[in-house]
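Checklist before submission:
- one chain only
- standard amino acids only
- sequence pasted in full

Submission:
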Amino acid sequence: MIAKVNGIELFYEKSGAGRPLVMVHGNGEDHTIFDEAVRELRAEYCCYRVDSRCHGASTDTPELHYRDMAADMLAFLEALDLRDAIFYGFSDGGIIGLMAAARCDRITTLIVSGANTSPKAVKWWLRPLIALGNVFAKDKKLKLMLNEPDITDDELHAIRADTLVLAGSGDLIPEKETRHIADTIPGAELQILKGEDHGSYIVHSAKIASLIRGFARTTVLEEKK
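Returned file contents:
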């Protein structure tokens, strides 16, 4: 399916019924990384798996910036009139989720995995590898990670969605950064998953389904008290 937003086309797949769940992949990936998770989630949620701009079957734009990608997701929510939405973002998708939730009341539950607030907030050895790859590939996706994001504490503090911040114990994002994100978002919960790396529990894995389902159910129960 296609959503026309901000002068581009975003490709997405929709499956299931129930409360809307928007899922956004990481850098260099597409919506198919969530195939296994959605098989378990679609019985309870209406799942929207979106290809970010310059990824998958969505429009390839000359430049790539996280704030444009976040604006795309806000426009996507508005175009489809999705309210009381759960937003799940992995890596770049998590960055997009943080930026979007700071500016949007349509997202009432936010779950992010392996997100960072600045290009330097990654393991020390990762940036040189990305820079080297960019020298040879001249890839705007790699350039993006070298120069962005630039999420401020004020933005994190502005998030009002019920928030769960996830990372693996062997993540590419230092635990200090993950804890800072969780500590700065009002009321956010934090889970560091033992034995998992950046994407081991997400990419073509059903493990993330139980984490999404468990947190979303908990927040609904708390609202009913």
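Reviewer check: The mean pLDDT is 96.
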